[in-house]
Design goal:
Radius of gyration: 20 Å
Order of helices and strands: EEHEEHEEHEEEHEEEEEHE
Structural class: alpha+beta
Strand content: over 45%
Helix content: 10-25%
Shape: globular
Number of strands: 15
Length: 251
C-alpha cells in the first residue's frame, strides 16, 4: 500500500480547480521553493495568479491516455502500455502524427491507482467530448483523455486556409464519449464560449482553444477584396461556419 501525505487532500497550499470523471485539476497556490535569485520573479508571479497546475487521475479499473512525457508519477496497480493493437493501428497512428504534429503514440495507463501529470503553468481544462459531438483542437493542446475517447484527424476545408491561417492542414479531432483534458493559455474563467446556430464567426488570429468538429473552418480575407482587407488592417481571419461551439481565448 502507498500513502502520500501532504498532497491534494491535506495540503493547505493546494487548491482543487476542477474535477470531472477521473480527472482533477489542482494548483499549488504559492511557490514555496524560492531562492534569492528567483524571489522577485516568484513574488510577481504570485500577484498575477501565475501558479503551477497539475492533473490528478484516479483510476478504478479503467484506462486513460496521456501525451508522451506527461506522467510525473503513478501508484497502485496501474500498467502502462503503448495502446497499439496491431500493425495497421501503428501505421494509422504514424500517419496522424505526421499530419497533426502530435506524438504517434499516446501511452495507455490501465488499472486501479493514481496517475499524476507533470506540472505546468498553462491552464488545464476538462471537456466532455460527447457534449461537443466531436472536438477539434490545436496541435499540442492535448494532455490526456478517457480511453473511450478516440483521436482522429480533421482536415482543413481548403489548402489556402491551412497555409494562411497558421493552423496547419490537419487538426486533432477527439471523438467518442468521456472526458479530455486540454491545456489553454488562459484560465477557463476568461475563455469566451461561443455558440453558433447555422451562422459564422470571424476571428482575427489563432485564438480558438477548441471547437466543434462539425464546424467548417477556413481562413478568408476580412473584406470582400484584397484592397478592402488591406484597408481594414485585418487581412486574413479565421472563419468558423455552421452549428457548434467554440472556446476562445480573449488575448
Amino acid at each position: 500500500m502507498v500513502k502520500i501525505k501532504n498532497f491534494v487532500q491535506d495540503n493547505d497550499n493546494i487548491s482543487i480547480l476542477e474535477q470531472k470523471g477521473v480527472f482533477t485539476v489542482f494548483q499549488h497556490n504559492k511557490d514555496m521553493s524560492v531562492t534569492p535569485g528567483s524571489a522577485a520573479a516568484s513574488y510577481y508571479m504570485s500577484k498575477t495568479n501565475c501558479t503551477v497546475k497539475q492533473v490528478l487521475i484516479e483510476l478504478q479499473d479503467n484506462a486513460v491516455r496521456l501525451k508522451p512525457g506527461a506522467m510525473q508519477f503513478m501508484t497502485g496497480n496501474v500498467a502502462q502500455t503503448t495502446g497499439v493493437t496491431g500493425v495497421g493501428d501503428m501505421m494509422g497512428k504514424m500517419f496522424k502524427s505526421k499530419v497533426t504534429g502530435d506524438a504517434p503514440i499516446k501511452p495507455l495507463y490501465k488499472g486501479t491507482g493514481m496517475v499524476v501529470c507533470e506540472p505546468t503553468y498553462y491552464y488545464p481544462i476538462i471537456e466532455k467530448v460527447d457534449e461537443w459531438c466531436g472536438l477539434c483542437c490545436d496541435d499540442g493542446m492535448f494532455i490526456c483523455c478517457d480511453d473511450e475517447v478516440r483521436d482522429e484527424v480533421q482536415m482543413r476545408t481548403n489548402l489556402s486556409s491551412a497555409v494562411a491561417g497558421g493552423e496547419g492542414l490537419f487538426n486533432l479531432k477527439l471523438m467518442g464519449s468521456g472526458y479530455a483534458v486540454l491545456q489553454s493559455r488562459c484560465p477557463r474563467e476568461e475563455l469566451y464560449e461561443i455558440i453558433l446556430e447555422n451562422d459564422c464567426i470571424k476571428i482575427d488570429g489563432n485564438m480558438a482553444v477548441c471547437w466543434s468538429a462539425d464546424l467548417q473552418f477556413t481562413t478568408e480575407r476580412s473584406g470582400k477584396s484584397l484592397l478592402g482587407s488591406a484597408a481594414s488592417g485585418e487581412g486574413l481571419v479565421n472563419v468558423y461556419r455552421g452549428t457548434g461551439k467554440i472556446l476562445m481565448a480573449p488575448k
